UniProtKB/TrEMBL annotation:
Residues 3-159, 176-299 form the Bicarbonate transporter-like transmembrane domain. Its main location: membrane. This is Bicarbonate transporter-like transmembrane domain-containing protein. InterPro entries: HCO3_transpt-like_TM_dom, HCO3_transpt_euk.
């Protein structure tokens, strides 16, 4: 699952195949890998391993046969007090988690026309979280529509602009209306730059957000629950490995470490980190790594026995 997903991602960045096929590799490579890996678990001798699969319940039924509505008005006051700190931690994590993911999904690498439009989902997410508390289901965090992988799937790719500005920068990303043809007439223009596609726009709509929410309801029906029950847990583990490794490649700490070990002669002159003193950059990265190491060590030791500690550390 992990290797196949990265293979599709690598093929999407090559010059092989038509641009439509490469785009399909980029958008649907991970789902194809998930389906293929799940099917392989039941093929030939692999089926004899009897892999553990995703546990499911009855269609549109709450877990353990309980009622859907939580009768909170019948709870004793002491249980409300016990649940209060858990609710506060969830509230803090809710704000942190969603706002950070929202800001990442509006990064400068995405040519959005209306970036604040993503914050409209925050209001809707608050309503759904309130309803989730009343019926006793896990609170939705909204990370799918707000994830960078979702914005990436909505990108419109095009070729760099051929218009050379006064500084001589010929590979500035063009606007959506300025996607140029691949024919080159200037003798001093590098044709290899036209083969490289860059983001020129984003399909800013809410249909995909609504479709993802609707698919969650569809997957609660009996036939689709049976299909979900066929997915091996190892395949899901590979899916999370891919998502984590893919996010790690574009992580700020990773990019700074790569900059520090990169040959200066091969570093682009417009690299923003060139404006920062190397000593300050090393100090900043060291603090980040120290904080990560401390958080990881705590969550893997005393944090395993303290359910309040993990989300609090993650939030701060």
């Amino acid at each position: 699952m992990l290797v196949t997903s990265f293979l599709f991602q690598a093929l999407s960045k090559k010059t092989c195949f038509h641009s439509i096929i490469r785009r399909c590799f980029a958008d649907y490579g991970m789902p194809i890998s998930l389906v293929a890996a799940s099917g392989m678990a039941y093929w030939g001798r692999f089926n004899s391993a009897n892999p553990a699969t995703l546990p499911v319940g009855a269609a549109f039924q709450a877990a353990n046969g309980r009622a859907w509505l939580v009768k909170f008005w019948e709870l004793d006051g002491k249980w409300v007090g016990i649940a209060l700190p858990f609710g506060i931690v969830l509230w803090v994590l809710f704000f942190f988690d969603h706002n950070v993911s929202s800001l990442i999904a509006q990064g400068s690498q995405f040519p959005l026309r209306k970036p604040p439009g993503f914050h409209y989902d925050f209001f809707l997410l608050g309503i759904t979280t309130f309803v989730a508390g009343l019926i006793g289901v896990p609170a939705p965090n909204g990370l799918i529509p707000q994830a960078p992988i979702h914005t990436t799937s909505l990108l419109v790719m095009g070729h760099p602009s051929r218009k050379v500005d006064e500084e001589g920068q010929a590979d500035t990303p063009a606007r959506l209306s300025d996607v140029v043809a691949t024919r080159v007439e200037e003798k001093d223009f590098d044709p290899s730059k036209l083969a490289r596609e860059v983001p020129v726009g984003v399909v800013e709509q809410r249909v995909s957000n609504l479709a993802q929410g609707a698919l969650c309801l569809v997957l609660l029906t009996g036939p689709f629950l049976h299909i979900l029950n066929l997915i091996p847990r190892g395949v899901l583990a590979g899916l999370f490995w891919y998502m984590g490794a893919d996010a790690l490649r574009g992580n700020g700490i990773t990019l700074k470490l790569l900059y520090l070990i990169r040959d200066k002669t091969l570093t682009p002159p417009d690299e923003p980190l060139r404006k920062v003193r190397k000593s300050r950059l090393i100090l900043f990265v060291a603090i980040q790594l120290l904080g990560f190491g401390a958080t990881f060590a705590i969550t893997q030791t005393i944090g395993k026995h303290n359910v309040l500690l993990n989300p609090t550390l993650s939030g701060y």
